[in-house]
Design brief:
Layout (H helix, E strand, L loop, with lengths): L2 H4 L8 H18 L4 H34 L2 H10 L3 H9 L6 H13 L3 H14 L4 H13 L30 H16 L1
């Protein structure tokens, strides 16, 4: 059922009016649920239905507010990634039906931020395949191949201590191991300070 119909209002109603109606109905159904027998059961059912409708309305408002703040389409995805809101970015990507080079590029970006490097690489390769003249996609693919660069070790085995899971190496990227990350940071600071 349409969540706005449950509030007896239309979708174009002002949010404050929707909220006031929600509060009004919540108070009514909250009292009705304590009535005896079927009347109480009906009040409880209506209260549950009202809460579900309100949750949907709030979700729609959040999406609308985010679009006003961050923009729509891939601009929104990019802003969600910057804000570490990967689930929101992924939800927007999942809603896109035209899976062109740009879509694969942004899917690669989300996967990269989640440290799913193999999946990221696959989508970057597809972005370049679909848009071979796009310099940004080609440069990103080249950088990704540098990150995964050791051809003797499979990318999924880069970065952790020897002997884990029977592999020579295990884990995500080369900075997953705290000691490795600290050593890299120390080396970089020594090089930069000289």
């Amino acid at each position: 059922m349409n969540p706005y119909e449950i509030l007896n209002m239309t979708e174009d109603a002002d949010f404050e009016a929707l909220k006031a109606r929600y509060e009004e109905l919540k108070a009514v159904y909250g009292e009705e649920r304590f009535l005896p027998g079927e009347e109480g059961a009906e009040g409880a059912r209506k209260l549950t239905q009202l809460e579900d409708a309100w949750r949907i309305i709030l979700d729609k408002k959040k999406v609308k507010d985010d679009e006003e703040k961050y923009g729509t389409g891939y601009a929104y995805v990019e802003e969600m990634v910057k804000a570490n809101r990967y689930d929101d970015a992924q939800a927007r990507l999942d809603a896109v039906s035209n899976r062109d080079g740009e879509w694969h590029y942004y899917q690669a970006l989300v996967y990269y931020k989640r440290e799913w490097l193999n999946d990221s690489l696959t989508h970057l390769e597809e972005a370049v395949r679909l848009s071979p003249d796009n310099v940004k996609y080609r440069d990103s693919l080249a950088k990704m191949k540098q990150v995964l660069g050791n051809s003797r070790i499979p990318p999924e085995d880069l970065g952790a201590r020897p002997g884990v899971n029977g592999n020579a190496y295990a884990g995500g990227n080369c900075l997953n191991d705290c000691c490795t990350a600290l050593c890299c940071a120390e080396c970089l600071s020594m090089c930069c300070c000289r």
